[in-house]
Specification:
single chain, 200 residues, mainly alpha
Length: 200
């Protein structure tokens, strides 16, 4: 439409003036049409710029949320959260062209950081689980060899600390999970019985 309007204005300028008594009025009418068109054009592009900037701010907020999640090790929840953010991203319209690549790379980097970390975790999971199993076996041996004091109030605190360390140790191979848990429980029961401490 702008191109057509410019062509019309160019054509106007090639035409000689109208009769003097009509010339000013004809020009005023034509100029009024030009002014109305360019005012509407300006309003249109201002609205587009406003929408592009609003879209940019929405995408920036998504980036900030993704960046706050990328270090999470809650694999399932964070995966779902990032997939939700990716779907939200797709629903948002374009952003200013000069910012488009930068904001996309920022969002993609945050997502990639998390998913690469998740992939690395699960690739090494069997190694990590084997290490955790060894830690739990070491903890059972440490509990077995621990020299408890006479004061059972202190002993209860010590046992609580052993329990905390046990639960803070991560997953073990699934086929060993029940066996190692039963062994731990048996050792705890033996210690409680030996110290004459009731179950807590």
């Amino acid at each position: 439409a702008t191109k057509e309007m410019n062509e019309l204005f160019g054509l106007w300028r090639t035409i000689r003036p109208a009769p003097k008594e009509n010339n000013d009025q004809v020009w005023a009418d034509f100029k009024g049409i030009l002014d109305a068109f360019y005012a509407a054009r300006k309003e249109y592009f201002n609205a587009i710029r406003s929408e592009l900037n609003e879209n940019y701010n929405k995408k920036l907020n998504i980036c900030l949320e993704a960046e706050s999640l990328k270090e999470s090790s809650d694999w399932k929840k964070t995966t779902n959260d990032l997939i939700r953010l990716q779907n939200e991203w797709k629903k948002i319209g374009p952003v200013p062209k000069i910012k488009s690549d930068v904001i996309w790379k920022r969002f993609r980097t945050a997502c990639d950081d998390f998913f690469n970390k998740k992939k690395g975790y699960f690739e090494n999971l069997s190694t990590v689980e084997a290490e955790n199993l060894q830690k739990k076996m070491d903890l059972i041996r440490e509990l077995d060899e621990y020299q408890f004091a006479e004061d059972n109030k202190d002993n209860i605190n010590v046992i609580h600390e052993f329990q905390r360390r046990w639960f803070d140790t991560g997953r073990v191979p699934i086929e060993k999970k029940d066996e190692i848990q039963q062994e731990w429980q048996k050792k705890i029961d033996q210690v409680l019985e030996k110290l004459k401490i009731s179950r807590f």
